[in-house]
Specification:
Layout lengths: L2 H8 L2 E2 L12 E4 L3 H7 L4 E4 L6 H8 L4 E4 L7 H9 L3 E4 L4 H14 L1
Parallel strand pairs: 2-3, 3-4, 4-5
Antiparallel strand pairs: 1-5
């Protein structure tokens, strides 16, 4: 499944245009602790976090994360979204909690 397909199926808002919408997603990871993500996120994984500062973009770039998903319709600064586009990282946002998004993504990826 691609980032774009996942966003469509789950009704996620795409904040960064067409950035990485064609990248494959094979798993996901939910964490707000940057060191935990660096140590444990898998390949081709989307990252679910409530963090909304530029440091998460550095971690996503380091780990080649195709998309970051922000739960609960939390607000993001325009500068953050601009920087995400520059770094080629998709930013998606949903109304569900991180827990709910994790389950939904898990189920969609298992369905194939």
């Amino acid at each position: 499944m691609t980032v774009g397909e996942l966003a469509g199926v789950l009704g996620l808002e795409v904040l960064t245009g067409d950035t990485n919408l064609d990248r494959e997603v094979r798993s996901g990871y939910t964490s707000d602790l940057l060191s935990d993500v660096i140590a444990n996120i898998g390949d081709d994984a989307v990252w679910i976090t409530i963090q909304r500062h530029v440091n998460i973009l550095g971690v996503a770039k380091l780990k080649d994360v195709p998309a970051i998903i922000i739960p609960r319709k939390l607000q993001l600064e325009e500068g953050f979204i601009t920087k995400a586009r520059q770094e080629d990282i998709a930013i998606l946002r949903g109304s569900a909690s991180a827990f709910e998004l994790s389950g939904l993504i898990y189920n969609e990826l298992k369905r194939g």
